[in-house]
Design a protein that fits this description.
The structure holds three protein chains of three kinds.
Chain A lengths: L1 H27 L9 H10 L3 E4 L4 H19 L16 H21 L3 H30 L17 H17 L18 H4 L5 H26 L12 H25 L5 H24 L2
Helix pairs in contact in A: 1-8, 1-9, 2-8, 3-4, 3-8, 4-5, 5-6, 5-10, 6-8, 6-10, 8-9
Chain B lengths: L1 H17 L3 H26 L2 H29 L11 H22 L5 H23 L3 H23 L4 H29 L13
Chain C lengths: L5 H4 L4 H25 L5 H21 L5 H19 L6 H32 L4 H8 L4 H19 L8 H7 L2 H27 L4 H24 L3 H28 L3 H36 L10 H4 L1 H14 L6 H19 L4 H31 L6 H4 L6 H19 L1 H16 L9 E3 L2 E2 L11 H21 L5 E4 L17 H4 L1 H6 L1 H4 L1 E9 L5 E10 L2 H21 L7 H18 L4
Classes of the chains: A mainly alpha, B mainly alpha, C mainly alpha.
């Protein structure tokens, strides 16, 4: 029961996080900007619009939004939000999470190629390039984090009390990976539709209406998952399954952690310029090296 | 008596080695076979085995009469220059033959240290004849000399076998004789064909078999 | 010397049975497939010959994995190589087939020479060819000899398996063979080399030194990365699959190498676990690579070309083949809940569990190897997005693809069997791991009766770790449920209809297939990122009519074939130079040859006394 509630909470608050980041960015740019709940309004708007399907597309184009959403939701099942044991703790562990995201990404890239447009092909090529370089960095982060607990289960590192150097460096590496995976500057720009600069947006360029809403929702949830993982590595907290009345302080603590990370991401997005695609390889190589350093620190017991 | 025949055999072998033209070669081969026949006949007389008579008879028929006749016929038919191409001139060939004789003498006495001089001598001559056959095959250019070299080697082996062990088994001998006859016939035919195709039988010019 | 009774000749322990299962699982669908594939391409007599050769091939492979005598093993190994050579050069119309066959037969015989050398050394100590006698003798083998025999076996079997740098025949031979033969060769024949390594190195020799495992791991990681990077650059669909075979052999050897490493460190549970991961990936790879080659064959038969740059839009013309290829592509990219995901997860988990239970610097080594495995799986997914997307999706890029038709029934049945197996092996992971545990236990000689590998039939839980779970059936269930939920949301909420219209064309009219992304363009980021290894170069040619008017401009981009250029071409040049210098002893003169004979005779006579 608790598990299902936590998943629903997770899903419902995902667009809010994105709206929060946009609000902070706008404020940093000295503008009032859109409201924090704008993503919800966008989703509602998309649901009321028609859908245009390209002529060249096949069944893969139509099926992809559902695959992407279901894979992201299945990944969300693996995350312990408030309680130690996640809803789907018997389904998989941290490594399975990586592969489940790969499922969604695979189909998204295929659907991009399916549209027979150059934008789609370009977006798919760049996205697969970036994601294949993300994999070793992510693997080293998982390695570093799980070395300390003897388990790759996500709920295993929920109850720690001490902050170690290894976990901080691992969180930094995971932060770099998150920027790549959630399509934020300096890797990708979510606000642009210029051919030179878009990666994820290029893949979903041809989507419209309700499928686009599903894909956007999936990307919000993915972002939430990654931010949560970073927060969990640095400030671990967890709660054995208790009744609902004791939830409130923990909810606030959870939101506070995510808020901090959102502020950091927004700062990075506003201050740093987007990198050239081939520099992303160096960027992710740096994340890999950080992961190796985190592993070394974990081996040394620091 | 045996010693004289062996001496003549040796001399005929030297003659073969220094021969410059084909008829000379065949003639010396004939003499050599005649001597061989003589040796075998004497052995047959002393041992009184009917097989040996037959063998020496065959030797006479084949090696003294038939094969030289065939070889003469080949030469007449192909009508080429009767010169045996020489890689080594006759004088140096003689020196080589003397060296071979000396080496075979050493080898024979090393193998078969007995007091019977005739036996050791025969053995040495047999080895020398074999090496003379090899010499002919390697250092003479025409195809005919290779046929004759083969025949001479066979002569030498026959001599060796009959001295050391009193001859090889009867049927083996017969078989060898017929083999030799047939091979001469075949090789004669091939020489004829080679001449027809290339208008010469100088084997030195046939050098396509290379790596 | 040779005991020919079946009881002594055949060895049917769990490892052999497992490999027999692998062989038949892939050969049977290929056989069914070949009926329609060969029809219409060759004359009836040649088709009969092809089927006879195929049966001989499968039979020889089955015998290779089930005999227990070294001599008989080599005989059947040679028969397998020869029959597959004939199958590779089957299509004698193409000059490339002959060249491919030549490279293949030379490489495989070099490997066989090493294996025979190893057998000879072992026989020297054991005085017998029987496996069990040799196994007993190996326990007292001196360490130096053991190392040499291990290296000989590794090179010998590595040539057949396709470990880098001995992999060079794979991209030549697999594309040229008929597709069902490629699927058997890639799916099964290179696995018999892995059987050889497991049987001879782990079962018979016995692993005692940890550097063996480390060496195999390093070679495996290099094979993975090299294989997948070259695969990304390929546009011939079957060469792409051949390079992926190199990569997957690397992944299998990661599991096997880990098992060797853990055996030498006396960690039996981990050794069995790693070998389970390796064997699981072995059978998975056999299935999905077999399926992918069969699909590639259908595409080739329908369109007449293997170049994916000329294809496109085939999903509408060959819908079933497209589904099978998609399943194979998903499996090889390790996407849940299919079988490739389970075996890669198990291999990664083997690395991680090893790191948890070891001490010292080797943990970092295991971690980095795991990261390299993650990199290859990401690159493999990228490569298959390219392969599937460019071949099947969007619009047709040339006339080849426009006239394609769906594959014939027997071809589809063959592919269907393998596709169903992919799904089964993914969902029934817990059950299969129990079976593989018995196989690994017998191969390593470890008693597994007290080890447990799963919680219940549906969930995998390694005993040695805390709270790690994986359950592919429930994952599949949740994925389907969420998918249905998403679809329900799509249907129920919102108004609006679906309109089919042209793709966004930036205001140009008449976009055609030339606007689509090409495979070369898709792989360009990878070409640039890995340019230190690929060393791409370009050739351009301008033909001008006048200074201002360029009539045509040709642009070619190539990647340097590093192994061929820096290892094999120099080696071949040295061999040919040596052979040329040896030619001088054969000038063609008969007299000289006769002289050689006589001198040899003389020397023999003179020196005969010494022996």
């Amino acid at each position: 029961m608790m598990a299902i509630l936590q998943i629903i909470f997770f899903i419902v608050s995902a667009p809010l996080l994105s709206g929060l980041i946009t609000k902070i960015k706008n404020n940093l740019r000295m503008r009032k900007g859109q409201s924090v709940f704008q993503p919800y309004y966008n989703l509602a708007k998309l649901f009321s619009k028609d859908e245009v399907i390209p002529e060249a597309a096949s069944w893969i184009f139509r099926v992809t939004p559902f695959v992407v959403l279901s894979s992201t939701l299945a990944a969300a099942m693996l995350i312990p939000v408030f309680i130690f044991a996640a809803a789907g703790c018997h389904i998989g562990d941290f490594l399975a999470l990586v592969f489940i995201f790969a499922l969604g990404r695979f189909f998204l890239a295929l659907s991009a190629l399916d549209t027979a447009s150059s934008f789609g092909g370009m977006g798919a090529s760049r996205e697969m390039f970036i994601s294949s370089l993300v994999e070793p960095a992510l693997c080293m982060v998982i390695f570093a984090v799980s070395l300390q607990f003897g388990s790759t289960d996500i709920s295993a590192f929920s109850g720690r009390h001490a902050i170690t150097i290894s976990s901080v460096v691992a969180a930094l590496a995971l932060f770099l990976v998150t920027i790549a995976e959630t399509s934020r500057i300096p890797v990708d720009n979510q606000e642009t539709h210029l051919e030179l600069t878009m990666v994820h947006e290029a893949m979903v360029l041809e989507y419209s209406g309700r499928p686009l809403a599903l894909i956007e929702m999936a990307s919000y949830i993915k972002q939430m998952i990654f931010f949560f993982l970073i927060a969990q590595i640095i400030f671990p907290i967890g709660l054995p399954a208790v009744n609902i009345t004791q939830i409130l302080p923990w909810v606030l603590w959870y939101l506070a952690r995510l808020g901090v990370i959102a502020v950091i991401v927004a700062l990075v997005e506003v201050t740093v310029a987007k990198m050239r695609l081939f520099r992303v390889a160096d960027f992710l190589g740096f994340a890999f090296v950080l992961g190796v350093i985190a592993s070394v620190c974990a081996i040394l017991g620091v | 008596m045996q010693g004289i025949i062996l001496f003549v055999l040796l001399a005929s072998t030297y003659l073969m080695v220094i021969a410059k033209r084909m008829p000379a070669l065949i003639r010396s081969f004939r003499y050599q076979s005649l001597c061989l026949f003589g040796v075998t006949f004497i052995v047959a007389l002393t041992q009184r085995e009917p097989e040996l008579y037959v063998i020496s008879g065959l030797l006479f028929v084949l090696k003294v009469s038939l094969i030289p006749y065939l070889l003469y016929r080949i030469i007449r038919r192909i009508k080429v220059n009767e010169e045996l191409g020489l890689f080594i001139n006759p004088q140096i060939s003689l020196l080589w033959a003397l060296a071979f004789t000396y080496l075979s003498w050493i080898f024979a006495s090393y193998l078969f240290s007995s007091n019977n001089a005739i036996l050791t001598g025969t053995l040495a001559i047999a080895f020398f004849v074999v090496s003379a056959g090899m010499f002919l095959m390697v250092f003479r250019m025409t195809a005919l000399s290779q046929i004759i070299g083969l025949l001479v080697m066979e002569n030498g082996l026959f001599l060796l076998a009959s001295t050391v062990s009193g001859g090889m088994p009867f049927f083996v001998e017969i078989a060898i004789f017929f083999d030799v006859l047939v091979s001469v016939l075949i090789m004669g035919f091939f020489v004829y064909k080679i001449n027809k195709l290339f208008t010469h039988i100088d084997v030195n010019k046939l050098s396509r078999l290379k790596g | 010397m040779l005991n020919l009774q079946p009881k002594h000749l055949f060895l049917l322990d769990p490892l052999s049975l497992f490999f027999l299962v692998v062989i038949f699982i892939v050969s049977l669908p290929s056989l069914i497939y070949s009926f329609s594939y060969l029809k219409g391409e060759y004359s009836a007599a040649k088709i009969m010959l092809a089927q006879v050769l195929l049966l001989a091939f499968v039979l020889s492979m089955a015998l290779v994995v089930s005999v227990s005598n070294c001599l008989v093993f080599i005989i059947f190994w040679e028969i397998m190589s020869l029959v597959s050579y004939f199958l590779v050069v089957f299509d004698t119309k193409h000059a490339k087939s002959i060249q491919a066959g030549l490279v293949y037969i030379v490489m495989t015989h070099i490997g066989t020479a090493f294996i025979i050398a190893a057998f000879m050394i072992l026989r020297n100590y054991a005085h017998s060819f029987d496996f069990f006698t040799i196994k007993n003798a190996c326990q007292v083998l001196p360490l130096q000899t053991k190392n040499i025999v291990f290296l000989l076996f590794l090179i010998g079997f590595g040539t057949k398996a396709g470990i880098v740098p001995l992999h060079i025949w794979l991209p030549y031979a697999h594309p040229q063979a008929p597709s069902h033969i490629s699927s058997i060769m890639s799916g099964v024949m290179i696995k018999t080399a892995i059987y050889g390594i497991i049987r001879f190195v782990m079962f018979i020799l016995g692993v005692n030194s940890s550097w063996w495992g480390v060496l195999v791991l390093i070679l495996a990681v290099i094979s993975c990365l090299v294989g997948v990077i070259y695969a990304l650059m390929e546009h011939d669909i079957k060469r792409l699959l051949a390079y992926h075979s190199v990569e997957n052999i690397g992944i299998i050897l990661l599991g096997v190498g880990l098992a060797m490493f853990f055996t030498s460190l006396n960690l039996p549970y981990l050794a069995v676990f790693s070998l389970i991961a390796g064997l699981y990936h072995l059978i998975n790879h056999a299935i999905f690579k077999g399926l992918l080659f069969l699909c590639a064959g259908s595409v080739y038969k329908a369109t007449g070309t293997r170049d994916i740059e000329k294809l496109g839009g085939l999903i509408k013309k060959m819908p079933q083949t497209a589904v099978y290829f998609l399943l194979g592509a998903m499996a090889i990219s390790a996407l849940p809940p299919l079988n490739g995901f389970v075996s890669e997860w198990l291999t990664l988990q083997a690395f991680f569990l090893g790191a948890f239970n070891l001490i010292g610097g080797s943990r970092l080594f295991l971690g980095i190897c795991a990261a390299m495995l993650a990199l290859t799986s990401g690159l493999a997914a990228a490569c298959f997005v390219k392969a599937f997307g460019v071949t099947f999706l969007a619009q047709a890029r040339s006339h080849y693809a426009q006239n394609a038709k769906e594959a014939a029934l027997s071809m589809r049945i063959g592919m269907l069997i393998l596709a169903v197996l992919i799904v089964i092996f993914g969902l029934a992971a817990g059950l299969i791991i129990k079976l593989l545990a018995k196989v690994s236990g017998s191969a390593l000689g470890i008693d597994i009766s007290r080890m447990s590998f799963s919680l219940n039939n549906f969930t995998l839980t390694p005993q040695i770790a805390k709270n790690i779970y994986l359950s592919t059936p429930s994952l599949a269930l949740w994925l389907i449920l969420f998918g249905i939920a998403g679809f329900a949301i799509y249907r129920i909420f919102g108004r609006g209809k679906s309109v089919i219209y042209k793709t966004w064309d930036c205001g140009y009219y008449r976009l055609d297939s030339r606007n689509e992304y090409t495979a070369t363009a898709f792989s360009k980021p990878f070409r640039i990122a890995f340019s230190f290894f690929l060393m791409p170069y370009r050739k351009t040619q301008k033909i001008r009519e006048s200074f201002y008017h360029v009539k045509s401009f040709t642009y070619e981009t190539h990647t340097t074939k590093v192994f061929k250029k820096y290892i094999y071409d120099p080696a071949l040049a040295i061999v040919f130079k040596a052979a040329k210098s040896m030619r001088r002893i054969q000038p063609g003169s008969i007299h000289l040859y006769l002289g050689y004979i006589f001198i040899t005779l003389l020397l023999l006579i003179i020196f005969m006394g010494q022996f």
